[in-house]
Design a protein that fits this description.
The protein has about 140 residues and is α+β, with helices and mostly antiparallel strands. It has a single domain, classed as Roll (Pnp Oxidase, Chain A). The chain is about 25% helix and about 45% strand. The chain is built from 4 helices and 8 strands. Strand 3 and strand 4 form a beta hairpin. The longest helix has 10 residues. It is globular and about 50 Å long. The chain starts with a helix and ends with a strand.
Length: about 140
């Protein structure tokens, strides 16, 4: 797959699993990315959540996206950078109305936005199950 095809797959399948690590202990959770482009992959969480503390303390992560229509898995490794952009936060809240009650109660600063940068993707399919891995730079 090309970089453009991978970004299209991610944007069409925003639900993924995101792995962090604390003191050598892995932590994986289901997440919904916000978008992916040549600058990286945007996620958000609450600034009081364990996830935010984990990526703040160890920014190395891996996200795994899966397209069930093609049985294609894309694993993306990278480094998290916190994004300080109130306009982006407002955009996210507008697109994800479930956040609105929390923002109304706790304020916009309760949302922590981060971008995975230095992204490298590895694609897996059943057909290429035993082929050598290929790594594609995304950002």
């Amino acid at each position: 797959m090309t970089k453009e095809e991978i970004l299209k797959l991610i944007n069409s399948n925003l639900t993924c699993h995101l792995a962090t690590s604390v003191d050598g202990q892995p932590h994986v959770r289901g997440m919904m990315a916000y978008r992916a482009d040549e600058n990286g992959i945007i996620f958000h969480t609450g600034n009081n959540k364990d996830l935010f503390k984990q990526v703040r303390d160890n920014p190395l992560v891996e996200a795994c996206f899966f397209d069930r229509n093609t049985n294609t898995q894309v694993r993306v490794t990278g480094k998290v950078a916190v994004v300080y952009d109130d306009g982006l936060k407002r955009e996210i809240v507008a697109m994800r109305p479930f956040l609105k009650p929390w923002v109304e109660e706790l304020g916009l600063d309760m949302i922590a936005v981060f971008r995975i940068t230095d992204c490298v993707a590895c694609v897996w399919t059943f057909e290429e199950n035993f082929a050598p891995k290929k790594y594609i730079k995304l950002s």
